Amino acid sequence: MGGLMMLNQLDHLPDGLLDVSPEQLHTVLPEPTLIHLTGRQPAPLFVSVLLHGNEPTGFLAIQALLKKQVSQTLPRSLSVFFGNITAARQNLRRLDNQPDYNRIWPGTELPDCAETQLAQACTDIMKARGVFASVDVHNNTGLNPYYGCINKLDNDFLQLAALFGRLVVYFLRPKGVQSAAFAEFCPAVTLECGRPGQQHGVDHAAEYLNSCLHLSGLPNYQPQAHDIDLFHTVAQVKVHERVGFSFTQTDTDLLLNDDLERMNFTEIAPGALLGTVKANGFMPVVAQDEHGNDVTDNFFSLQSGKLQINRQTMPSMLTLDERVIRQDCLCYLMERIHL
Fold it and tell me: Which of 24, 93, 287, 292 could form a disulfide with 20 if both were Cys (CB 3.0 to 4.6 A apart)?
């Protein structure tokens, strides 16, 4: 996508917004839009939805929340950013000619483009508005529990995440994510709300956002160890770009086990197998730590054509969606942090 993208801003809900599907949203909002609604407490809660067009739970939660509030004043001002509306129209994470809308925010490693300028504008506007807290709502493709992700281990970040659930993940990579950009000036969290299409995920996200709107402030003490399971993402794992992979085609370079996603949020012992490698001796995956260093050998080895894990770890975001694996990554590896 070349050229300039203006950030569309509104101070009201356009007609039809609370009734359209994510695929129809483009008929109401043709481009990425930031909507500001005034509430009794002026410092706004910022919510971003549809940064990935095939992750609709945040959008549906905002619809559910605002339908209940239509005739009432909000307890706190609310600013909602509706992200990749063109990808949502096709129910895709992103279009092939687009960058990932959760990699374009300040701090990104992507080259300057229309989308990074759009994200910079949104960030500058919200910083100037004295934002109270930031919530970015996502879905997983794989089998994962609900959890919150944070980019700083400060108490208010931990409290904001613990309000969503007891599983909390601390991460520094990938760069350019919305929550990390906003973490520079307010408490920020990314919510992972399970798979798309599950009403319980929508309900849970809507209740959480409603709770945030009713907060006068965040507790300034650390959550107790028994209230929170805290993990640190220590590596991102990608399939090497030259390697063909599949869950079903046996003649491919890397045949991945078709039950991989059952490992998500499970402590995996050394020796666990991920799949079978055709060309023995060539490592088909690349693991990078949060500073971008190659740590593949710390986590993986090849034993007689089998790809196996070397050390105790806990994966997240393992998915069976081959397109997502190619566009994003195979998984993240985590280690427990004791509060």
Answer: 24
